[in-house]
Amino acid sequence: MRTALVIGTGLMGTSAALALSARGVDVHLVDHDDSAVRTAAALGAGTAGEPGEQVDLVIVAVPPAHVATTLADAFARGLGRGYLDVASVKGGPRRELEALGCDLTSYIGTHPMAGRERSGPLAATADLFEGRPWVLTPTAETETEVLNLALELVALCRAMPVVMDADAHDRAVALVSHTPHLVSSMVAARLEHAEDTAVRLCGPGILDVTRIAGSAPGMWMDILAANPGPVADVLADLAADLTGAVAALRALQSSDDDKRREGAAGIEDLLRRGNTGRAKVPGKHGAAPKSYEVVAVLIGDQPGELARLFADAGAAGVNIEDVRIEHSTAQQAGLVQLMVEPRTAPTLTAALRERGWALRQ
Length: 361
Known about the structure:
Blueprint: E1 3-7, H1 11-22, E2 26-30, H2 34-42, E3 47-48, E4 55-60, H3 64-77, E5 80-85, H4 91-99, E6 107-112, E7 133-137, H5 144-156, E8 160-163, H6 166-189, H7 196-199, H8 204-210, H9 217-226, H10 228-252, H11 257-279, E9 293-300, H12 305-315, E10 322-327, E11 333-340, H13 345-354, E12 358-360
Parallel strand pairs: 1-2, 1-4, 2-3, 4-5, 5-6, 7-8
Antiparallel strand pairs: 6-7, 9-11, 9-12, 10-11
Helix pairs in contact: 3-4, 6-10, 10-11
């Protein structure tokens, strides 16, 4: 791939353009928002404006509702040898293109499983897709050259290709992406009119659950409107679990011992199923999740403290597998939870104590 045209210079389009430009591809940038194009170009993502000749690959990075019409226009104008989109739904846009009578041999639907809470070109990074799955949905009519161009794009962005059927992809993202966002928003919405005294008790649990609720509503409205059926199906199953949980919790309030036991069994079953489901989520490097030992360290809120902590862990020869930070609302301090292999936890604990760190159980 020598040349590419990116249509849509938001988070996804600009990130792909940055990755391609950094690896020597001549990238051209187009967007209905001139300021977004200028910003992306200023960041080094490519050259603003359409190319003077046909490019190797046209990358459409617009909201799902506009994918089909944008691609149809690009097809008609012969802008590229190959075409793909990066929208988060795949079945709907393809059916729209078929209804428009487009020749889809030079097109492949794709979806990089990456993103951020922020949107727009200023949120873009060249490494956004590194190590992330990038779904490709070829069909029997997809030209081999186009599939190869898509695979080259994935490789240049240092992502991991995953081949799926378009409708199977839409059901999958409804389960692992779209429904979780709605549920996160539902939990966060409970805080809208909460008393300040209750909100001050917020800890890492509520922060974890509501993190993605901070995303732009307009963007998510586009995504959910393009995949409503599969999301509704997952929510219906979730609603059944919620109804069961409410009934079980009410039973725990009963004065009848049998009802209380039945309620406890219902809640315990839900929690166990949650454990089983969580254990299926891939861990580091896509492998099965591991159980890590947590070494908790109290650090002050000063510049360089985290760097010093990580440097001391490195000097002890211990690899930090994951990290979480719990901020204190009452003092200028934080609790850093270092996740390490269980066999290395004693070594790290001893080394950090020797270097004067305050450890917590």
